[in-house]
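Methods — Computational structure assignment.
A single polypeptide chain was analysed. Its primary sequence is given first, followed by the predicted tertiary structure written as structure tokens.
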Amino acid sequence: MSISKEDIKWMQRCLALAKQAEGKTASNPMVGCVIVDQNNNNIAEAYHQYAGSRHAEAEALALLDDNAQGCTMYVNLEPCHHKNNRRMKEPCTSLIAQSGVCRVVVGVTDPIAEHSGGALWLEQQQIEVTNNVLGSECKELNRPFFVWADKHRPQFVLKIAMSLDGKITKNKGSKTQLTGQESQTNVHEYRKRFDAILVGIETVLIDDPKLTVRHVTRDKDPIRIVLDSQLKMPSESLVLPHNSDSDARMIVACTTMASDSDRHRLEQKGAEIWCVEGNSKSIDLHVLSARLGHEGLLSVLVEGGALVHQSFLTEGLVDDVLVYIAPTILGGSEALSWMSEQMCLSQKMSFSAPPKQIGDDILISLRLESS
């Protein structure tokens, strides 16, 4: 069956519904569902609200007492069809078949083998299935989920604020505020969409950040992650849970060379200490990323500093980059550049969105082509 204007309309509604749960569903994707009757009237709609809640299809069918005889269901991700998983409830495909739905319109197929194949199974039950409706848009909405499924790690997005001449601070070891209030608010809008925020120990020592969501409405703070190979973090750092008004998890990643006394000191302040393979000076980012993926984190906003950014780029772990450019020039031999002269990046970047003016600043959104 060909794709109609109505199909496009209702899939767009699915995307709008799904997006309401942005930042709340990991390690699940964002999913919206719309059910229409034979006259193309929307009679039920729902979305997956948070990890552990009922799936969007089940929520929508429940609004109809699981009776949707002769109806069409729209869903931006293929309905789950898990097999032999006792931890999960009845798959959405079974609920759909039992409800009497006669047609299912799918945005994009599920990339996880353990619960994919729902579209084919529904067709075998004599239910008409239309695939790939707004497929690119549906995949883009759940980009972190698709990166996680493909690479078994979170999507890593670098966030950089710099001057027109590519500098991030006037002097090494000092903090320079470059961007305006509008950009700072925009960063917090991004923060609330991510499962975690990551910085290096130098950022903690210089800025003493809280790494929480402020200036915008929020439901929760993301997990805070600090790379601190030798556990140099002061006990009074504001990012530590017992020094903060946030109940978000806080992870300090160190190497096995870190002392037991420092581990105990930071644990007493509420931090989770992850000992990760590496040497005395650096953490193996591939090992860390795999563990974060195993924990179910889909997206991590890497806020810096420069050495952390360069390390992620060198290891080929960057998927996207957000660059806030302030209309100022720092100049001078003491000003620190975002990227060292020795850095050589083989991967090419392309624009993932048009440049956007935010207050007096410009936001550039980039994607590494291999991602």
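Note: Residues 5-19 form the longest helix (15 residues).
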